[in-house]
UniProtKB/TrEMBL annotation:
Annotated organism of origin: Micromonospora sonneratiae
Residues of the DUF218 domain: 45-154
Family annotation (Gene3D superfamilies): HUPs
Pfam families recorded: DUF218 (PF02698)
InterPro entries in alphabetical order: Cell_Envelope_Assoc (IPR051599), DUF218 (IPR003848), Rossmann-like_a/b/a_fold (IPR014729)
Top-level taxon in the UniProt lineage: Bacteria
Protein name from the UniProt record: YdcF family protein
Amino acid sequence: MTTPPHVPPALRADVECLWDYHDMHHHARPYDVGIGLGSHDLGVAKIAVDLFHRKMYPRLVFTGANAPTTIETFPRGEAVHYREYAIEHGVPADAILIETQAKNTGQNIEFTGALLAKHQVEAQSVILMSRPYQQRRAYATCKKLWPEVDVICASHPLSLDDYVTSIGNATRVIDMLVGDTQRIDKYAELGFAIPQDVPAEVRRAYTRLVAAGYTSRLLP
């Protein structure tokens, strides 16, 4: 029997710290548009479908091309596969727009705004749906590029352990958490996102995980 992937016990407190930090803990409420950010994680499409059926928005946009981590899972493009999943699970096709060119979070936001304007869809408020550990970075990016829009974040509601099981690789999840933590400061410095407070305990957890070798998603 294959042993399920798990977070090493010695690292659990630090990984949980980063996991909780990147969750914005927003509560979904009715907004103008839902935006599902493309990735390797089908959970984005799942939460998008759930919130649509709960009448949290009347119009849904999926945005995303492909990346090295998604080409095998979603060969026709992230947004295309998300749309297919949503339609298969009861979202009307005419309620969905797709944007198929974006290759990073900034482009997700920029290209979606242009797409909505093209279709004359008013978006004074949006719910951004992403991987759990992408919430804070997505929020900061949206507030930088689309400051006039009221934005909240959502993800498929899974515990850390359930998410690791769904991805099938604990190291990959920890690497991504560490990489997104670095990007909170780095992207603000580069002008890609608004600054976010990073508590001291988050910085310490990040530093220990880097020292433990979880560095594959770090920027130079």
